[in-house]
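Hi V.,

You were right to ask for the full record rather than a summary. Here it is.
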Amino acid sequence: MTDLQSSLIAIGGVILVGVLSYNKWQEHKARRSVDQAFPVAHDDVLMKSDASSGDTRHLQRQEPAMSPASTVASDQEAASEFEPYLKTALASTSEQAGHAAPVSLEEDAPQEPVFSLPRPRKTLPVDELIDCTIPIALDAQVRGDKLLPLLQKLRQVGNKPVQFIGQNSSNGEWEAVSRGSVYNALAAGVQLANRNSPLNELEYSELVMRLHEITETIGASPDVPDMIKVIQNAHILHRFISEHDVQLSVNVRSNGAPWNIVTLLAALTRQGFDRRTGSTLVMQDGENEVLFSLTTNVGVTTEVTDCLTLLLDVPRVDPERDGYGALVACARSLAMRLGGTLVDDGNQVLSEDALSDIAGQVGAFYGAMEAAEIPAGSGRALRLFS
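Predicted structure:
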């Protein structure tokens, strides 16, 4: 081996050691930044005990106020106000929320509907606003015990759920079919649309065919609505879903070194985030309802990230839970603790004015949903925006 070869090997070894040392130093720096941001475990982010003894029987929900003032407060004020209650932000949306009339699925329907359920005393699984309702006349009363095994065979067509209700023979009220009750009449309902698609001809045809098979077994006659009208209504409802399918996001971008994923996820979990997948977590309120989600924007094998994204599924969150205010407060807190900046999807810094404008848009959006008789976060909204 020549002197030149020996020198080259020595130089290569020095470079390799240097690269490994630099990588270790970067990893240590990333871990230390997260450890410093989250030095200790905190109480449940949305629950706070009035006593210091740890008794949680009288926990109360801690809700931020949704107002322009809360969203444009200084970073330090927001971080201190919501520190025990880590939640994150929203941001840029190109959606402009407007006022809407109640959803009408019968644009040229006759004055008197063919079949209309009376206003129930309790919520029914069949909803005439978002379901195609099919009345089923019975030749004789049928017990719920006999019906349930048959109805279980038809719970879905395509990706649309199918539900059944019955008129209780003892009190005449409509209810979900259950054991121990006897029914004078039935009604089936198939959801007209969801986020993915409206009910189509193949799905409706499958529903009608399978429904006939069930009703023949129990001596019943379904009054099947005209397919053309049903499909038309499905497209009307799906158009409403598409126009109101708003998801707001905000990103927390690192101002320096990237954050170590393992340490970061462990710290966020201690702060109250619930890990759902490898890179996605959710923040819940005091009633175990999801407020918003957080993603690290990297794959499961990646060790560091320099950007966190928080996402609010607006139509699925009741305005009283103030998902927007909670998101903004959490994003500010994360930025303060991790050394980051709030940016939109175009990596533009989110100003206080921009966040305030979004708050106004969110308020208008909620008003439009309410006017359409599909309030955000309601059972109807959760079914449609699924």
